[in-house]
Amino acid sequence: MLKYCKSKHQKKQSNQVQKPANKDFVNIAVENFTRNKALVNHTELMDLTYSMLDKMKISDINDNIEVFLNKSNRIIIFAAPESDKESLPSATEVLGLVKSVQNKALEQYNPVIKKRTCSLSTNKSR
To answer: Which of 10, 34, 44, 96 could bond 40 through an S-S bridge, CB–CB 3.0 to 4.6 Å?
Structure first.
């Protein structure tokens, strides 16, 4: 099961539940009117959210990942200094790369953290 990190986020949500601002009520009403979302208070929403996250399994996510991540809602971002702009791949090259790996079995990325040993020498003789 997925475990949701609740520390800072939960404290912030708790403060909003205990002392909701007027904008919180307005946002709920707007979401209801424009997106047909249910009118629930923050406490009910948080309780429902945490109960759903506690029941969610990795297999649920893996079974439905293609619904959430597909061609129509994919965003690919490159962050680089302006001076490197000329060396970045074109949109056509990036989409070609995506297409070339989309049906391949890929290994999970496991970052390797190398510890640097730092020796500080203090030279007391001057």
So the answer is: 44
